[in-house]
Amino acid sequence: MTTASPSGARAARHCHNVLNPFHSTHYFSPDLGKELAAVGITDRSAAYFAARAAALGAVGAGTVTATFYNFKHELVARHVPAVWRTASPETVLAARARAVDATLRRLLGDEILASPEMAEAAGLALRATEACTRHARPLYAAHADLPVPEEPHLAYWHAATLLREHRGDGHLAALLAADLDPVEALVSHVATGKGMAPKWLLATRGWTTEEFDAAADRLRERKVLDAAGELTEPGVALRRDLEAETDRLDREPYAHLGESGVARLTELATGFIGTALAAGAFPADLIGKAA
Questions:
Q1: The pTM is what?
Q2: How many CB atoms lie within 10 A of CB 275?
Q3: Who is most buried in 47, 142, 194, 290, counting CB within 10 A?
C-alpha cells in the first residue's frame, strides 16, 4: 500500500483543487442549458442530473441520490427517470460534449485549446487516471467506460472528470465514516468558508431552510458547530480529518504520476482555470458563508 507523505498529500489536493473546477465549468455555462434544451431537457435540475448521471445509463432516482449524496431524493425523483424518456443517456452525453467544447472555446479561446501545453496537460492527467480504481467508485467507473476524446482539450476535460469523480466517490465513503448525513455534510462544509454559499445550495440541492437549520442544530449537539454556526475546535478537526481520509483514498493517481508530474500538471491546470475564472466561468457569489 502506498503511503503519501504530508507534502505529497498536499500537492495532490492542490492539483485536485485546480482540476475539479475545470470539470465544473460546464455546469454554470449557458452552453449546457442550450444543448440540453435542444434535445428537450429544459428544466435546470433535470439538466444537471442528466448531464452528470448519463454515464451511468438510464438509472433511476435511487442510484442518482446515492451517487450524488447531497441532493434531496424528492428533488431527484421529480426528474429521474423521467428525463430519460425525453433524451436517452447517449443523446445527453453527446449534448454534454458539445456544451463542454463550446464552453472551453469561449472561456479559453482556440489558441489555448490548440496549444502544446493543453496537449501536455491532457497527457499528464490521463497518465494519473491509469492508477484510478473502479471498485466502490460508481461515478468514476461509469465515466471510465467512456471513450477518451481525440481533441486534447476534451481529453483533458475527460481526465479531469475522471479524477474529480474518483476523489468524489472516495469522499462519500469518508462522509459516511464521519457520520455526516447529506445536509450535515453541506452545512459543515459551508462553515469552513470553502463550500458553496447557502443560497446556491438551497436553490439546487432541494433542501429547505428548515432542514438546513435542523442539520445545524444536530451539529451543535455534536459540538461540531458553536451557537453562531462556526466550526468549533472539534468541528475543525472533523473537517480536517475528513479531507485527510479523502486524500488517503485518492492518493494512488497522484503517486502514479509522480512528484514532478503532479507539479507540472498543477502548474498547467492553474493557468487554464485562472483564464477561465477571469472570463467569468463561475458566479462571483458561488463560494462563501453568506446566506
A1: 0.96
A2: 14
A3: 47
